[in-house]
Amino acid sequence: MAKLYSKRIQIAPVGFEIDRVVIPAKKEKAEKVYLMVHKNITEANYAVHKKYYTLIQKKLKAAKIETELVYCDWKNIEEITRVARDLILKEADNEIAINLASGSKNHAIGLDRACMTFRKRDNIHPFYPEAKNYRAVKYPCQQSSGVKQIKQVPIHRIIVPDPELIEALRIIRSNGEIIKRSGFAEIGKKGIKKKDLAKLIFGSGDKTNMVRLQRNITEKLDQVWQAIEIISIGRSDWISLTDEGKYLRFVLRNEETY
Questions:
Q1: 170, 255 in Cβ contact below 8 A?
Q2: The pTM is what?
Q3: Average pLDDT over residues 104-131
């Protein structure tokens, strides 16, 4: 029996578009729209940004569509990806439409990336509402009017680490300490001893668990994902997160469980 979803949800970043948020929400009979707005209220021209999302809220309220503001930094693609991913996880039992056209290029990239992080994607529907009319940019007027067509955008799969690898990244991040060479000079990185990582994951750092750690965790994180760096100091190996590991830990902090 096919699964019945309880609500039609949309996620729409707010830029300088009004129709491209409101018209798709009304046309697709959305019951709730999450509006992604900039979180830094002290920035110049924030009053103009607020004017746009307030007007969108007013129009959607008149159409009996619920709205909720979600705050993130529109300049930070990684944060947009994580915030969108968390919203999709929150609304996992519903049909979720993702508006790729209503915000900035950073929003479009981050939202598209978020869609790609899920193993189960049947209820996720990115779309691009093509404007009916474009106009010369005249700040702070909206850049287009009307919606000519709503184009569905297929989700292309990317592979994400297995849950046990994501958990290992979390443990490394949470238990990391400044690494010192021979107990003296700091090397400028945080990490965890390999033996301590085995204890936290498997309960002990004996020889058997060290082999398990190598084969099932660190080898994959190092060679496949390039998410960790192994630093040898004396007789101990330390595990430190690379930039890629920090990114994966940031974006995938909440695991897909449905």
A1: no
A2: 0.73
A3: 90
Distance from C-alpha of 219 to C-alpha of 223, rounded to nearest angstrom? 6
> For the segment 154-194, what is each residue's pLDDT rounded down to a tens digit?
665 567 888 899 999 999 999 988 887 765 555 678 899 99
Residue 146 CB partners (closer than 8 Å, separation 6+): 19, 23, 131, 132, 133
For the chain, helix, strand, coil in percent to 5 are: 40, 30, 35
Of 149 and 222, more confident = 222
22 Ramachandran zone, left/alpha/beta (phi>0; psi -120 to 50): alpha
Q: Which residue has the tokens 């981050």?
A: 110
Q: Distance between CA atoms of 61 and 65, rounded to whole angstroms?
A: 5
Note the pLDDT tens digit of each residue in 144-153: 667 777 766 6
* Contact status, residue 56 vs residue 21, Cβ threshold 8 Å: yes
Which amino acid does the sequence have at 171? I
Token couple for 105 = 């290029």
Q: Residue 179 — φ and ψ, nearest 5°?
A: -85, 130
CB 241 within 8 A of CB 176: yes
Q: How far is CA 154 from CA 126, 127, 170, 200, in A?
A: 7, 8, 31, 40
Contact 19, 144 (CB under 8 A): yes
Q: How far is CA 207 from the centre of its chain?
A: 38
Q: Cβ contacts of residue 134 below 8 Å, gap of 6+?
A: 143, 144
